[in-house]
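Class, study these two lines:
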Amino acid sequence: KMDETKKKKKKTAECCGYPISIFFIVVNEFCERFSYYGMRAVLVLYFRYFLLWDDDLATSIYHAFVALCYLTPILGAIIADSWLGKFKTIIYLSIVYAIGQVTMAVSTIHDITDANRDGTPDNFTFHIALSMLGLVLIALGTGGIKPCVAAFGGDQFQEHQSRQLNTFFSVFYLCINAGSLLSTLITPVLRAQEYGIHTQQQCYPLAFGVPAALMVVSLVVFISGSGMYIKTDPEGNIMWSVCKCIGFAIKNRFRHRSSRYPKREHWMDWADEKYDKLLIAQIKMVLKVLFLYIPLPMFWTLFDQKGSRWTLQATTMSGDFGAFILQPDQMQTVNPILILTLVPIMDRLIFPLIQKCGLNFSPLKRMTVGMLFAAMAFVAAALVQIEIDKTLPNFPSSSESQLKVSNRTSLRYLFLYSSADYMTLDHQNITVSLNTNPVITKAFSLIKGGRQTLIIPSNPTLMYLVSVHQAKMFVNGWTADLNITNLDSIEPSATSNYTLVSHGKRDFVLRHGEQWCEFSQKFGFGASYTFLIPSTVFSTDCESKTEVEDMKPNSVHMALQIPQYFLITTGEVMFSVTGLQFSYSQAPKKQAGWLCTNAVGNIIVLIVAELGKLPKQWAEYVLFASLLVAVSIIFSIMAYFYTYIDPAEIEAQIRKEQGLEPEEKEKETLEMEEKDEGQKNDQEVKKNQDIRFVKIRLCWNMLIYTL
């Protein structure tokens, strides 16, 4: 025992009282969190606008990925505790993680398969397969290292560094929040940049490439400190022991199901013939809490839609705040900012005030109120959605098509004309006849559920359809090739590809040889424009160009989302933070169930998005709010009948019954002798025991909060 203790307490290099090794761990955690949250911030928009999935499919795949990220920590803990140890698990799974991020970044380069140079990938299967592979690897990596990094950092401290350990976990948690906050601010800005070899598109490669680079940096930094770490061997995974104990209890109970066998107080007591009573008592605590967890996934069902449904909602709103432009995916930063504000207010002001009023605001009551706040957040989101729906264009249903005509067939004046609005058609195949001499007739097949413009050039026999997107497009009515800023040359009577542009005022230069002119145009969020260029464009100094607004800009402001973010964050503080404290106080050694509630919540979103298919988005928000209210009522009833326990007292009683206390005291005395020989009195032994207890509790509590 003495050799083991000395090995564990070997001296490490220190700086300002801290092990130098923890600086590598802190930097590693900051880079990893930046990588994960940066990638996740723009993920749903990548699905929606790069892979061109609809809102439901984009939401489903997003939540499937998040659910996988919350399930894989169990696998990572088993690998670390049973086979590789924490250090090797972090190294190997970080490599998998980095490969996944790089794969994801490569999948966003549209020029790889854009053979016709129209800004859209020609082989979507390639990009989808590559991105799905990348997401699976990322989920394995981020989830696998999640339960290891904080605990590995705690391993680096000695018994006399309890104060430094406390500071380490505070800095560690600060790095998590700093990484997530900065990445959620920065990566949407990178996404909004324009790039492309042939056409200018939103810069998803940069938005995913920077998180990939940060993950590589995270791995390199962690490996750099390898020689300074204290590395512990695998200690065996408690989860496997728990499963075997439960399995034996069930089998033994079934074997003795006859009435001639006396009943036992709890069905887990049937395992005491083979397993330790302390383990059985701990499993009872865990099962009691897990039963209470059954309704909890519904909270996460609503909460995690900040990154999917609410982000998609923000794409239909205006982010012009005057002094700055806010991207739709940047609205997610409101949550961590409010968290940093509300947590101290709740802890220092609200909860003490409620307590002084004599109200019994127990942890389970706080969690119930937190769920109700989340339900109110979705009611607020539904009200915002109703306002948005009033301003949105009347898009065709999946069985309809919409058509607008752009005509420049006046042979004498060569002027451009566009119909005022889209015609909605319930049939896909149309025939267009022009009253020319001779009459020109041409058949077209429209896209169901989409908008198209019929371009009729000066040579009517060449008329053609183009699909309408949220972007800008130029139609060249000039008699020769036309060069336009940031676009390839456009042939006569041809159109440019739709090109995405950032919000605000943009300048364009039209050029043909020595002739040129320029004009400016202000672009709004979500709008679509077609610019019709007549043959007289240079003689009129661009004044004769015609602007057609295919889709009006968004008019509902993103600031209207702030109330729903405030409500959901208030709910998070009451539900999540309190739930972690409750879980630790009632079952301090088994916390995997809390993670599983988050994973199950994301799976529920996936199911509703794919199977619900409600015609209006606001109706889906109301559905989720109603479900959470119903679940909170069920949870409040379960909480009413729940009896709080003291795990430490139960464990101490069992140890006393088993006669384990003398052995524990002997072990404590042995460690005290090594630390400071000559001081063996009971007071010092207890002091050292308390310090060690604080260390273990802090390590475990911060690890779980990090999860």
